[in-house]
Design goal:
544 residues, UDP-N-acetylmuramoyl-L-alanine:D-glutamate ligase, 2 domains, ten-stranded mixed β-sheet, 20 helices
Length: 544
């Protein structure tokens, strides 16, 4: 699913009118209908419920007027507050505000309900009780946010700031039952960025139209959405595909379904035909990381898994790893990490393997380990997955070290490791995760998985994928080692194109973490729980 900027969304709406012949008024009516449908599906019948609909004078406010009218027609008590003068609105939004105003002039409906409407200058309707500053002395059942939409580029100020803060206070008050529904994006958030620019609505449900916006999917802004629904409002799929040049995508379940279907085991499969993985991992005192990665590789479906580790770590690893895992020893330094003399034995072990993963628990504190990693990659004959100390050994990333489509290099840094690889600060990486991951991927022809909340996957062609699965309970030691194992195991089963295996791995890793958290809670979740629930994540798709 493409992720759009505000300008791209405006262009798509215009092209929908010009090329598909769907008027703006119809798009607005459909958008309002989709929000009401989402409310009914999520919260049930609205008859007798109280709604406050907060509108701005633009298209988002016009959507709000449609929402208000449709809710009133379904039996809700509706109060519409326009934060502008009615005469300052134009076009389709003005027409929808006028339609609501006409309903207020008609008096009470047959069931005794009124619909209230106010703007900055006055109130309309039989009772005249509405106040434009904030019309509900008591908290309504629902507040619909249709104030700004995607066009905001500066912080909300004045009356706008006050109403945003009051809505948030009502929602967060002790024992509050008020639910906040945002149309397109919570007001106050920039649609084109990942970080807030000022006060903003915190919603329970956001219904965005046609495609998600960057502010809907990138943290921390995405946390203000509550649950996110992407609603179609009439734009044809072919138009979005052909006319929109966005290369940022939200990962969907369908991609995982398609990849798992394409990589199904043949009836006559054997362990050698479903992937042979070599993990170069572990060192004295750090064998747990190697054991976690090895088991995850097996659980992901690889037929054969061998861990090559320093000689003194091998005996410890045998006691920690699954009995199905094979081990090999490599020459080590006096500190118990892999030495430069391990290069040729490791290259021999890697010969004819499907995938080699390097890094978990490797220890990069010694110069010898750094030399080993860089030279192994330069002489590689298989796809490489790099994580943890495998990345630290290369920091900053050597410009001469390039991946390729035939022998891909997949790296999985967290922000701190990415900062070291790119000579940036942690703050710089967190502020521009998409841009920094994309730049490194394109410059060095890598597949980059920048881990964290909503992990970013960047490809050498400049495309970027935002992963929606995962939770804060996965912020625990060893979770990255499990991802390395899942990625290595899936990649070994279908090497080309590598990007599909990477996207599927990140999605399943997060989904397994979500299933673990739903059973154990986030606080108690540990890395091995992700592996323990990986089968449930995979079965969710394979049983289809």
């Amino acid at each position: 699913m493409k992720i759009l900027t505000a300008q791209q969304m405006r262009d798509i709406d215009r092209l929908t009118v010009e090329k598909a012949g769907i008027p703006y008024a119809t798009l607005m009516e459909t958008a309002g209908s989709r929000v009401v449908e989402a409310i009914l599906e999520r919260y049930g019948p609205v008859a007798g419920k109280t709604f406050l609909v907060i509108c701005g004078k633009g298209n988002n406010g016009g959507d709000g007027a449609v929402i208000a009218r449709l809710l009133w027609m379904r039996g809700a008590q509706v109060n519409v507050c326009l934060y502008s003068k009615l005469e300052d609105s134009k076009g389709d939004p003005r027409a929808n505000f006028e339609a609501v105003k006409e309903l207020t002039n008609a008096g009470r409906g047959p069931d005794g309900r009124e619909i209230f409407f106010s703007d900055e200058s006055k109130s309309y309707g039989p009772s005249g009780k509405t106040e434009a500053s904030f019309p509900y002395p008591n908290a309504p059942d629902f507040i619909v946010d249709a104030l700004f939409g995607t066009g905001l580029s500066r912080p909300a100020q004045g009356a706008f700031e006050q109403v945003i803060e009051q809505i948030n206070r009502i929602r967060s008050a002790p024992n509050s039952r008020t639910r906040v529904i945002a149309a397109d994006i919570p007001s106050g958030l920039p649609s084109d960025g990942s970080h807030p620019i000022g006060p903003h609505i915190k919603a329970d449900l956001t219904v965005t139209f046609t495609a998600p916006k960057l502010g809907n999917v990138l943290p921390p802004n995405c946390y203000a959405n509550g649950d996110l629904i992407v609603a179609t409002i009439g734009t044809p799929g072919w138009l979005l595909e052909k006319e929109c040049d966005s290369n940022i995508f939200l990962v969907e379940e369908k991609q995982t379904t398609d990849w798992l279907t394409a990589s199904r085991r043949a009836p006559d499969a054997h362990k050698g035909s479903v992937g042979d993985v070599l993990l170069i991992a572990g060192s004295r005192g750090k064998t747990g990381a190697a054991a976690l990665a090895a088991e995850a590789t097996l659980r992901a479906g690889a037929g054969l898994v061998t861990v090559a580790t320093s000689a003194s770590a091998q005996a410890l690893l045998v006691n920690q790893a699954r009995t199905e895992v094979m081990t090999e020893s490599l020459p080590e330094s006096v500190m118990g990490s892999i030495s430069p003399e391990a290069l040729q034995p490791a290259l021999q072990l890697a010969h004819d393997r499907s995938v080699v993963a390097i890094g978990p628990g490797l220890s990069s504190a010694e110069e010898g380990a750094c030399h080993f990693v860089s030279e192994f990659i330069r002489q590689r004959t298989t796809p490489i997955v790099l994580d943890a100390d495998g990345l630290n050994a290369l920091a900053p990333w050597p410009e001469s070290l390039q991946g390729s489509d035939e022998l891909p290099i997949i790296i999985t840094p967290h922000p701190g490791e990415m900062a070291r690889l790119t000579n940036k600060t942690n703050a710089q990486v967190v502020a521009d995760r998409v841009g920094i991951a994309r730049d490194l991927a394109m410059k060095q022809h890598l597949i980059v998985v920048l881990k964290g909340s909503r992990s970013i996957i960047a490809a050498p062609d400049g495309s970027v994928f935002v992963n929606p699965t995962g939770n804060a309970g996965m912020a625990t030691a060893g979770a990255g080692d499990v991802l390395t194992g899942i990625l290595s195991g899936l990649l070994a089963q279908q090497l080309q194109p590598a990007l599909g295996a990477v996207i599927t791995s990140v999605y399943l890793h997060g989904l397994a973490g979500d299933i673990a958290a739903s059973n154990l809670g986030q606080r108690s979740l540990i890395a091995s729980d992700i592996t323990n629930y990986l089968h449930e994540a995979i079965l969710k798709f394979e049983q289809r």
